[in-house]
Amino acid sequence: MSRGKPIGRLFLFFAMFALLLTGCEKPLSNVLDPQGKIGKEQLELINLSVYIMIFVCVIVFAIFFYVLLRFRRKPGDNAIPKQVEGSLMLETLWIVIPIILLVILAIPTVMTTFSQAKEAPKTASEDFIRVKATGHQFWWEFEYPDYKIRTSQELHIPVGKKVYVEVTSDDVVHAFWVPGLAGKVDASPGRINRIPIDADKPGIYKGRCAELCGASHALMNFQVVAEKPSEFEKWAKKRQKPKSEPQTVEAKDGKKVFAQNCMSCHAIDGTKLKMKGDKAPNLTGFAKRNKIGGLLDNNEKNLDRWLKNPEKVKPGTYMPGFSHLNKKDLSSLKTYLKSLK
Amino acid sequence: MATLVVLLVFALFIVAILTGGYNKQMISRFRSHWLWEWLTTVDHKKIGILYAIGGGFFFIFGGIEALLMRIQLFFPDNQFIVGRDFNELLSMHGTTMIFFVAMPLLFALMNVAVPLQIGARDVAFPFLNALGFWLFLAGGLLMNLGWLFGGAPDSGWTNYVPIALNQYSPGSGIDYYVLGLQIAGFGTTMGGLNFLATIINMRAPGMGFLRMPLFTWTSFVASALILFGFPPLTAGLFLVMFDRLFGAQFFEVALGGNPVIWQHLFWIFGHPEVYIVVLPAFGVMSDVISNFARKRLFGYTSMVFATLLIGFLGFMVWAHHMFTVGMGPMVNSIFAIATMAIAVPTGIKVFNWMFTMWGGKITYSTAMLYAVGFIPTFVLGGVTGIMLALPPADFQYHDSYFVVAHFHYVLIGGTVFGILSGLYYWWPKMFGYKLNETLGKWNFWVFFIGFHLTFLIQHFIGLFGMPRRYFTYQEEDGITLFNQISTVGAVMMGVGALLFVANIVVSYRNRTSLVAGNDPWDGRTLEWAISSPPPVFNFAQLPQVRSLDCWWHEKMEGNKEMEPAEPLDHIHMPNDTPLPIIMSLGFFISGLGLVFRAFEVGVLGLVVVVVTMFVRSFKPDHGYHIEVEEIKATKKGA
C-alpha cells in the first residue's frame, strides 16, 4: 500500500498544474498577478515565502519518502532495531537552519510592514488622491473629500497615483479588498483604517467584502475603475456637475415617482429634490455605472428585476421591492434613472 | 414557552408509560437497567467511550453541514442554500467541528489512554470527569436545538460583534451559540483541570515526568492551555450574553463600546484552542510512530520541550488572526515574529518523527498510515501557516479561501488524522477487539485522497480572490472548476467517513475473530501491560516504572508483566452517581429558558444546579472497596 502514496501525490500535483494552465482564463482578481505597486510588493513577499517553503518541503518530503520506503518491516523480520535516543548534532541542525530561514523571511517582512503603513500626507497634492470608503450592509459608499464627490459601488481611481483609502463601517464589520490591486483592511464601526492602493494599468478590478457581514456578504461586490489621470479628472468634473434634471416628459414623471418612493433613502446630486437620503447608495450618474447593486450588469432587464424584488437578488437587503408600482410609473422611473449621467 | 411545557409533559407521559408508572420498584428497575450504569458512571474508560459517541454524533451533523455548503458552491450563482441559511451552515459547521467534535474526541482518547499510560486507577476527580462530559453534551445539544427552534447561529464560529448583536441577528441563533458554548466550556475547563491534577498527582511509582509517554505529555500541556485559554472566552461570552439578553452596551459603538474587544477576547482563547486540539494529536502520532517503527522516540527530551514551547508561544500570537484590524505596523510585526517562532519547535517535532522511523522496522497498520499521512499534510499546513504570518502578505490571504485551506490542513491533517489514528490504535484497549485492517486501509486512502482533493485546490481559490464564507461566486471569477473539484473531494471524504462507520459495524459483528490480547501491537507504554478492556480498577497492583517506554523495557528483559510496586490490597473506588447528569440537565434547562427569554425557567434550571451542588457537598459519599478475593478472581478471569 505504501507504494501508492507518492504516486498519488505526484498525480495530484500534476492535476493541479494542468488546472492552472487551463482553468484560469480571466481571473479579474488574481492575487498572483496584481496590477499595482503595493500589490506587487506584497506578491514579492509571497514569492519569497513560497521559495523558502518549497525548499523546506522538498527536504522534508525527500527524507520522508526515503524513510517510508527504505525502513519497511519485511514479513517475518523480527529483529529489534537499535533504540536510538537522539543526536545532538542533528537536533541542533534542525533548530538552527529553521531559525536562519525565518530570519531571512522576517527582515523583509518587517520592512514591508512598516513601509506600507505610511499614512497619507496631511496636505493635498498632485501625486495622490484620498478616498473615504464606508461599508454598509451590503454596499460600499465612496467619498472623495478633495473633490467633494460622494458615490457608491464604483470607485474611480487615476492610474499611477497612490490612492489612500480611509476605511470604516456604518453598521457591522466589513473588510475592503481589491485582490487584483492590493491586500485588505477591516471596516469596523467606530474606527478608521487607512490603506493605500494603486493601479498601474487601466481596467476594471473586482472589489470584495471579506469579513462576514450578514446574509448577502457574498454579494457585497464593488468595482474599482482605474483610468488615465486625464480621464479620471474628466469623470470627477462630470460628477461634480452631473446631468440629473430630466429632459423628457417621461423622465420628468420618473423623477416624481423617485421623489415619492426613493428619495428618503437614495440621493441624487444636481437636482432640486426635497431631501438627500443617505441610507442607501447615491445614484448620481447611475446610467454610467457598469453594475446595478454592484452585482448585476446594468441593463433594462436587470433593473426591472432589481426594482421589483431586490430580496431575490441580494438576500437580506434593506431595499424593499417596488412591484406594487403600476407599469407606467415603473417604466418612467426606469427612464429617469437611465437618464442620470 | 407553551410548546416547551407541552413537550415536557408529553415526555413525562412517555417515560411513565415505558416504565409502568411510579411505584416502589421503579427506582430499582431503573438502577438495574444497563443504561443506568452508563448514565451514572464515573469510570474514565466508560466516560472515554461516551465522549467518543458524543463526538461521533456531532461529527455527523458537522459533516452534513460541510457537504451542503460544498453542494451550494458546485455551480456559480447557485440558488440551493443562500443568504442567512448558508451563514447558519458555516457557523454551525465551524462551531460543531471545533467544540463538539475535535475536543470531545480528544477527550475520549485522553480518558481512555492517559490514566492507563501513567499507571493510575482513575482520574483525580472522577465526579468532575463525568460532569465535564454531561456538560459538553448539554451544550452541544442546546446549540443544535437552534436548527429546530428559532434558527441556528449565523455569525460564523468567531461570532464577531456587532453582527452577533440583537440589531443585526435578531433571531435566537446567537443566544444558542452563547449559552451552548458557555455550558460546554464549563465542562471543558473541568476536564482540563482534571487531567492536570491527574497527571501531576497520580503517576505510578517511578513514572517521573521525563518518563511519561508523549501522549500524556501533550495532553498535559493541552490541559494547561484549556485552563488558561477558556476563561477569556467565558468572559467574552458573558459580555455578548449581557448585551443580547439584558440590554448591556459593551459593544455598542455609539455609547463608547468597542467591538474589537470581542475579537481580542475571542482570539486570546481561539489561538491556544488551535493548540489544544492539535497537541494531543501530536502525542498520538508520537506514540503510534514509535510503536509501529519499533523504536523509541527520537529526541524524546527535545520533543517534550518543543511541546512546552509550543504551548507557551501559543498564547503570544493571537493577534495574527487580526492583522487587518488596523493595529499598526509595530503590533503586527511583533506578532508576526512570534508566530514565525512557533515554526521552530514544530519543525523539531516533524524531524524527530521522521528520524524515529529512520532505521526502524515500520509496519503499516491503519493507525500508522494515519500517522504517516499526517506528516506531509501537516507540513503543508505548517508552511502555509508561516506564509500567513507575514502581515503584508496576510493582507491578501486573510479571510480568503487560502485561510480555509490552511486551517483545514492543520485541523484535519493534524487533529482528525490524529484522532482516527488514535481510535484505530486504542480501539482494542477500549473494546477488546481490533478494527478490521482491510476496511481500515480503504478508509484511510479514500479519506486521505478526498481530503487533498478538497483542500489543496482551495489555496488557489483563495488566491484567485474568493473570500471565505461566501455562499456563491460568479462565472467571471474563473474558479468554477476549482470549486467543483473541491466538492468532489468533499463527497469523497464523506465516503471515507462512512467507511469508518462501516468498519465499526463490520468489526463489531466479527469481534470474536478480531479479539486482541493485552498487547496487540507489541506496544511500548504501560496501557499495553494490562488486559483489554482493562478491569474497572485498571491495575491490581500499581506498577513499578523503571524507564521510558517501561512496558517495552520489561518485555526486552523477558518479563511477562510489570513488576508491582505495592502488595495486593483492597482497592478504594468511587461510587457511580446520577448527580452529574442532573446538574447538566439543570444547566440545559437554564440555557433553554434564557434563549427563549423565559427568565423564570432560566432561574429554575440554576436552582436545580445549586440543589445538586448542595447534595454533592453535604451528602457523604465515601465510595466502596474492591476486596482482594475479587481482584484475584478478575485477574484469573482475564
Automatic annotation (TrEMBL), chain A:
Its EC number is 7.1.1.9. The chain crosses the membrane at residues 48-69, 90-111. GO terms for cellular component: plasma membrane. It comes from the Bacteria. It is a multi-pass membrane protein. Its cofactor is Cu cation. Keywords: Copper, Electron transport, Heme, Iron, Membrane, Metal-binding, Respiratory chain, Translocase, Transmembrane, Transmembrane helix, Transport. It is found in: Cell membrane; Membrane. Binds a copper A center. It catalyses: 4 Fe(II)-[cytochrome c] + O2 + 8 H(+)(in) = 4 Fe(III)-[cytochrome c] + 2 H2O + 4 H(+)(out). GO terms for biological process: ATP synthesis coupled electron transport. The keyword Protein biosynthesis does not apply. InterPro entries: CcO_II (IPR045187), CcO_II-like_C (IPR002429), Copper_CuA (IPR001505), Cupredoxin (IPR008972), CuRO_CcO_Caa3_II (IPR034236), Cyt_c-like_dom (IPR009056), Cyt_c-like_dom_sf (IPR036909), Cyt_c_oxidase_su2 (IPR014222). The keyword Transcription does not apply. Residues 126-238 form the Cytochrome oxidase subunit II copper A binding domain. GO terms for molecular function: copper ion binding; cytochrome-c oxidase activity; heme binding; oxidoreductase activity. SUPFAM superfamilies: Cupredoxins, Cytochrome c, Cytochrome c oxidase subunit II-like, transmembrane region. Residues 249-341 form the Cytochrome c domain. Residues 23-120 form the Cytochrome oxidase subunit II transmembrane region profile domain. Subunits I and II form the functional core of the enzyme complex. Electrons originating in cytochrome c are transferred via heme a and Cu(A) to the binuclear center formed by heme a3 and Cu(B). Belongs to the cytochrome c oxidase subunit 2 family. PANTHER family: CYTOCHROME C OXIDASE SUBUNIT 2 (PTHR22888:SF10), CYTOCHROME C OXIDASE, SUBUNIT II (PTHR22888). This is Cytochrome c oxidase subunit 2. It comes from Marininema mesophilum.
UniProtKB/TrEMBL annotation, chain B:
PROSITE patterns: COX1, COX1_CUB. GO terms for molecular function: cytochrome-c oxidase activity; heme binding; metal ion binding. Coiled coil: none annotated. Pathway: Energy metabolism; oxidative phosphorylation. GO terms for cellular component: plasma membrane. The keyword Cell membrane applies. InterPro entries: Cyt_c_oxase-like_su1_dom (IPR023616), Cyt_c_oxase-like_su1_sf (IPR036927), Cyt_C_Oxase_1 (IPR000883), Cyt_c_Oxase_su1_BS (IPR023615), Cyt_c_oxidase_su1_bac (IPR014241). One of its GO terms (biological process) is respiratory electron transport chain. Its EC number is 7.1.1.9. Belongs to the heme-copper respiratory oxidase family. This is Cytochrome c oxidase subunit 1. It comes from Marininema mesophilum.
